[in-house]
Write a structure and sequence with these properties.
This protein has 68 residues and is mainly α. The chain has 3 helices and no strands. The chain starts with a helix and ends with a helix.
Amino acid sequence: MLLLSAMVSLSLAPPLIKWGISSDNNPLALLSMRLILGASVLWVGLLLYKPELAQIDQRGLMGCLGVA
């Protein structure tokens, strides 16, 4: 599964970069979209395959909010 997802994501990168450069998009907007997409895929995979790892206690939540 990881091999398939790596193959798909790496094969989609060059056309998306070419589209982003040719359409005169803001580089920060492209970077933000890439990071949001990556985080979304990570969370979906985590929730599908290891949902017990997505749980957080109150102390951990306060730590995350403090860092953010």
